[in-house]
Amino acid sequence: MKIENLDIRRAAASDAAEVAEVWLRSYAAALPDVRRAHTDDEVRYWLREMVVPAQETWVATVEDTVVAMMVLDGEDLDQLYIDPPWRGRGIGDRLVELAKRRSTAGLTLWTFQVNAPARRFYERHGFVAAEHTDGERNEEREPDVRYVWSPEAEQAHGTA
Question: Which CATH number fits domain 6-156: 3.40.630.30, 3.10.180.10, 3.40.640.10, 3.30.1390.10?
């Protein structure tokens, strides 16, 4: 079900509180069994003071309400969170397409191995698992997987 009044734009400082709440709700819904390394207030502070003002942060809004957020750091897709009631409506698809347009050399990202829906989503979008870890390098100590997307591979497979 496509959303007619969806707007995707760069996040403003005034979006930070909503961005944080989307992140928190999405993480809790998608990863209920994964230990969080930071409290809700620490996540809110991090997004408000460090991420939104200093990184390439994008929001998807419907009627001026943030329903999704994405952070790009060069060729790294660092964060992509959709508010649970808005999942399955093509918002993530649109954000990934934006990320691909903005990083034409390719993209990398990390997700937890237990996050099967995210893994299927990224694989559907042409990302390929390039590395699996035991979680030793992330704060949650959760096994994760690094995905890579390259425009050349996508063109070769006809998925562009």
Answer: 3.40.630.30
